[in-house]
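call fold target=MgsA AAA+ ATPase C-terminal domain-containing protein
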Amino acid sequence: MVTILMRAINSLGIHVLDSSRPTDPLSHSSNSSSEPAMFIEDKAVDTLAYLSDGDARAGLNGLQLAVLARLSSRKMFCKKSGQSYSPSRVLITENDVKEGLQRSHILYDRAGEEHYNCISALHKSMRGSDQNASLYWLARMLEGGEDPLYVARRLVRFASEDIGLADPSALTQAVAAYQGCHFIGMPECE
């Protein structure tokens, strides 16, 4: 998980500060573009990886929320103190990560964006033939309160469109699972 986050952080142009060698982010060379120079503590990256429970989407969303939390806190500080706001240097700390994840780490949100993120992740896991990931996303959706009939309908769609003629019995099995969920109902059909 740390590797994925480090790759994302590097691709975004965020500099990781090593806690064993304390340096002032203001001493780094000035960036000639209008974009702010972004820094993150290595401890903040470790905390982000730990708190996102191996879920790369949650980790990347948490990183985004940490950056936004830091920028908004600096904006408010400048506004209160009467200073002009210019985010030339931004340091993301472990507390920023915790604050960002505190607002976002929800198991499942049936009515929100997480609903679509999870079903998309389930489809991608099945398309990639990753059984463990498929079971994880399926369990996460059902534990979060998703309607099993919705999941069964999506499995029927997946069997007909993505698998198709590669395995003709897949559609029959998916339709049988849908009918079983429909007749039995919750909680037995889980």
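return ok
Residues 56-81 form the longest helix (26 residues). The beta strands are 14-17, 37-41, 89-92.
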